[in-house]
Amino acid sequence: MYMRLDKYLAAHLKLGSRKDVKKMIKDGRIAVNGKPAAVPETPVTPGTDMVCLDGAELKYREHVYIMLNKPKGYVSAVSDNFHKAVTELVPEEFKKFSLFPMGRLDIDTTGLLILTDDGALAHKLLSPGRHIPKTYEAELSESVTAEDIRLFRDGLLLEDGFKCRPAELVPHGERRALIVICEGKFHQVKRMFEAVGKIVTALRRIKMNGLELDESLAAGEARELTEEELDLLINGSMEDRT
Ligand code: URA
Questions:
Q1: How far is the CA of 105 from the centre of ligand 1 (A)?
Q2: d(CA 98, CA 174)
Q3: Is 180 in contact with 188 (CB distance < 8 Å)?
Q4: What is the distance in A from the centroid of ligand 1 to the CA of 62?
Q5: Rounded distance between C-alpha atoms, residue 57 and residue 35, angstroms
Q6: DSSP per-residue codes, 43-73
Q7: What are the residues whose beta carbons fall under 8 Å from the beta carbon of 94, sequence distance 6 or more?
Q8: Who lines ligand 1 at CB under 6 A?
Q9: In angstroms, what CA-CA distances link 241 with 124, 202, 232?
Q10: Which of 136, 141, 111, 123 is nearest to 222 (CA)?
């Protein structure tokens, strides 16, 4: 599907207003397939034609997917009247996209959070029937017991009567554990540990489906997902698929 170059630059690549991009074209700064574009009406096919600004290729992306290593103190929201919102941590170049967090982490939970403008994917991955696995590292008031592992595996009953799906609990050092859950009720991990008499003193998400947190990202840092990482988020890892 082709469209006018000025519309593509302004509405899709968000390079500026229609007026701004018309000026860029007029100034000879925009090239399509290696040739300077003469007029704003030049037809382009997004994803097929190579469009450059000052010689640098403008990569077409239908949607943006950002991995954030969420620090404490930020709410998983687009904006908030009382707290800092995770969208404030998005690198400047992505601020022009209407990004929102895919799912929620509590204000004091850290780790892997995806921000995107792809509502259809968020809906697909977070829909209750999908059950994508999410892995958390928890620091606890007490070490986990063999009985806790069994209770988590069999499906815990929370204080409000909610029966959890089976979850994997793996001790990970003294008063630490890894937990894999396939649902995402409000404060779920904290409430699951509460149900076995333990308090979560720190919680960090390290994996969603096949996508692992990039440990080289400092708390508060964010970067775009690679295509391979996006595939791992959507489809899980090869082991998960077999
Ligand atoms: N479970 C919780 O209790 N908190 C989170 O932030 C995520 C999962």
A1: 6
A2: 42
A3: no
A4: 30
A5: 13
A6: EE-TTTS-EEETTEE----SS-EEEEEEPTT
A7: 64, 66, 224
A8: 105-106, 109, 187-190, 203
A9: 17, 31, 10
A10: 111
Rounded to whole angstroms, how far apart are CA atoms 207 and 213? 6
Quick check: 60 pLDDT over 90?
A: no
Distance 109 CA to ligand 1 centre (A): 7
221: tokens are: 């840092």
Residues 6 or more apart whose CB falls under 8 angstroms from that of 20 comprise 10
Q: What DSSP designation does 12 have? A: I
Among 108, 109, 137, 213, which residue has the most ligand 1 atoms within 8 Å of its CB, making it the best to mutate? 109
pLDDT digits (tens, 9 = 90+) for 199-219: 999 999 999 999 999 999 999
pLDDT higher at 60 or 222: 222
Place of tokens 């390290």: 206
Strands (E), the chain: 3-4, 30-32, 35-36, 43-44, 51-53, 56-57, 65-70, 74-75, 84-85, 100-101, 110-116, 134-140, 168-171, 176-181, 200-208, 211-212, 222-224
Q: What is the DSSP string of 160-195?
A: TSPBPPP-EEEE-STTEEEEEES---TTHHHHHHHH
Q: Is 106 a catalytic residue?
A: yes
135: helix, strand or coil: strand
Q: Given the residues 49, 80, 106, 108, select the one marked as catalytic.
A: 106
Matching residue, tokens 């840092």: 221
Q: pTM for this structure?
A: 0.88
Q: Check residue 242 and give its pLDDT.
A: 55
Q: Any idea what DSSP says for residue 242?
A: -
